[in-house]
Specification:
- The structure holds two protein chains of two kinds.
- By secondary structure, chain A is mainly α.
- Chain A has helices at about 1-45, 65-70, 70-105, 110-120, 125-135, 140-150, 165-190, 195-200, 205-215, 220-235, 240-245, 255-265, 270-300.
- In chain A, helix 3 runs antiparallel to helix 10.
- Chain B is an all-alpha fold.
- The chains are: A mainly alpha, B mainly alpha.
- Chain A: One of its GO terms (biological process) is transmembrane transport.
């Protein structure tokens, strides 16, 4: 009698226990399916409509994409992304690796120095942009500082020069992210087997040579992770442009993320804005799919 | 790679290395120093001096004016950040717990689908999200921003906890299950007490992300509900009236101080979050 009631009472509880993990995960599953994939699909659909200020679901075929490709500002933004992304990734990696290798030479105040290199990463891109906008101010920023310090012919007016304004974004972005790459590589260097370096040293190889031919090649995974993160930052870069140049002068420093924002939300070109967002997604996918593929394949080999 | 035994010899190349590292320290510090110096100068001082000239008099007028302009938005940022960080961390912890200890058919697939959220360019969800917030009556409210940050923060918070929990030996949980401990008992009694480091990492990561957010803030809020980053951008990029660089810099410092403070206090966890969030699933 008592055992029977116990079983009766226990079974719905047991069932609940079995369902609990699924119940707990259910809201997140809903969020991911709707808020991630559903919304991407929605944006995808919008990019094929004639939507302007309000969403309308009148089919436009590829018209929005065609308009996008006819739009000079989109091409400027895309070319800027290539230029900005290329320089930002290249310079950030070079500086990050360089500083990490130097810091790896048993430096006494390493912890303190690392903290200084990395602090920009804690700041909002808006704060970074504000600071560098002031530093690069033509007439009052570094421009004036270096002349005051005796470099008479020094001019730095890139911020208002349509041909050079992208370099200003690069400088600020490198300042912000290079310490982070340094930290990633330093962590990687700490995992390198000391005996390899010792052995190479015994063979008479110089330290720079050992780093270049043995140590750094062994950090290929860190290199690829860094590359992917930096590319990701570059494609999403929006705040920095908003704070530093707002895309100007004219639209000479526009990036796709900025283009998408201004066409979708300020100019009432929802359809074209959505098309540009889908192309940004394509760019991200082109980078992460090969990366994830090689990651997963690499794991299976282990 | 540090060993205290063999003390490095003081030679030319070591001096050069130290010199380069020190130079880099100074270069990284320049923007911060310039911001601070400028924020304490008078407008006249700014126009006669240069970036690194010492203020003729230290004045707080820039800070006072900046604070008067942005204090409401600073409060908004707190009202957005605190609940969003707590909720997304709690949900992330539970998700990670299920995805590592209570796997079921399809849970791995879900994890894969979720991971993509770490790379998602938010531009692809902005419009539908703003329609949804409108329908829910949350457009231009701080609660709306909390919701958005929770939703799009889930990918990272879940990833943090899931990766931390898979390294906990399963035998521990199996034994507790045999003893009759249930889902939440195991979580509360065994898992949670072991989670302090990853909770710290997750809280700090989310705090920095949400406090520093600009995109969601500028799209989903207006006027009185804007976060500090949007307010700062408005202060800096208004073209009316004379530019007051001391106010701009003070406002930038106000917007940057909370995350800088967290970084200085808990830098260890900040770095771990960056690298954990960065390196694989």
């Amino acid at each position: 009698m008592t055992t029977a009631t116990a079983r009766l009472r226990a079974s719905p509880l047991d069932a609940l226990q079995r369902w609990l993990p699924k119940l707990v995960l259910a809201p997140s599953m809903f969020i991911v399916l709707v808020g991630f994939y559903g919304y991407i699909l929605w944006t995808f659909v919008l990019s094929f409509t004639t939507s302007t200020f309000l969403p309308t679901y009148k089919w436009a075929g590829l018209a929005q994409y065609a308009r996008l490709f006819d739009n000079d500002r989109w091409w400027v933004a895309s070319k800027n992304l290539l230029l900005f992304g290329g320089l930002f990734i290249g310079i950030t990696l070079a500086i990050g690796v360089f500083l990490a290798v130097l810091l790896d030479q048993r430096i006494r105040r390493e912890g303190f120095i690392r903290t200084i290199y990395l602090y920009p990463m804690a700041l909002s891109m808006i704060v970074t942009g504000t600071a560098w906008k002031w530093l690069l101010n033509p007439g009052m920023g570094l421009d004036k500082l270096l002349r005051d310090w005796g470099w008479e012919g020094f001019r730095l007016d890139w911020l208002i020069d349509p041909d050079r304004v992208v370099y200003c974004l690069v400088i600020a972005a490198v300042w912000q992210a290079s310490g982070f790459i340094m930290a990633m590589f330093l962590a990687g260097l700490r995992g390198v087997d000391q005996s390899i370096i010792r052995a190479a040293q015994l063979d008479g190889a110089s330290l720079p040579r050992i780093y270049w031919t043995v140590v750094l090649p062994s950090l290929r995974p860190v290199f690829f992770s860094s590359l992917m993160i930096l590319a990701h930052i570059a494609i999403k870069s929006f705040d920095l442009v908003a704070a530093m140049t707002a895309g100007g002068p004219g639209y000479s420093s526009d990036l796709p993320a900025m283009f998408m924002y201004s066409f979708t939300f300020s100019r009432g070109q929802m359809g074209m804005g959505s098309a540009s967002a889908i192309l940004m997604l394509g760019a991200i996918l082109a980078i992460i799919v090969p990366y994830l593929y090689s990651e997963l394949r690499g794991k299976r080999h282990d | 790679m540090t060993s205290p035994v063999d003390k490095p010899a003081l030679n030319l190349s070591r001096i050069a290395i130290h010199a380069v590292l020190l130079l880099a320290v100074l270069l990284y510090l320049v923007p911060l120093v310039v911001m601070l110096l400028t924020s304490f100068k008078t407008p006249e001082d700014i126009s006669t001096g240069n970036l690194l000239s010492w203020p003729a008099v230290f004045t707080g007028i820039g800070w006072a004016k900046a604070w008067a302009t942005v204090n409401g938005y600073f409060l908004n940022s707190i009202l957005i950040t605190v609940p969003a960080v707590l909720i997304s961390t709690a949900v992330g912890a539970l998700n990670g717990y299920v995805l590592s200890m209570w796997r079921f058919r399809g849970s791995q697939l879900f994890f894969g689908l979720l991971l993509f959220g770490c790379f998602l360019p938010f531009q692809t969800v902005l419009l539908p999200a703003s329609f949804t917030l409108g329908k829910l009556g949350l457009a231009s409210t701080t609660s709306g921003l909390v919701l958005v940050h929770v939703v799009y923060g889930l990918a990272f918070t879940t990833l943090f906890f899931r990766n931390y929990y898979v390294s906990i030996p399963e035998a521990l949980v199996k034994a507790a299950r045999l003893d009759g401990a249930g889902f939440f008992t195991i979580f509360g009694r065994i898992i949670l007490p072991m989670s302090t480091p990853i909770i710290m990492v997750c809280l700090i990561w989310q705090f920095t992300q949400i406090w520093n957010d600009f995109l969601f803030g500028v799209v989903f809020s207006s006027g009185d509900s804007q976060p500090i980053t949007v307010a700062l951008n408005n202060v800096v990029n208004t073209s009316t009236g004379a530019k007051e660089y001391n106010v701009d810099m003070a406002a930038a410092m106000i917007a940057g101080l909370p995350t800088l403070l967290v970084y200085v206090i808990a830098g260890k966890y900040f770095v771990r979050g960056l690298t954990a969030g960065a390196v694989k699933g």
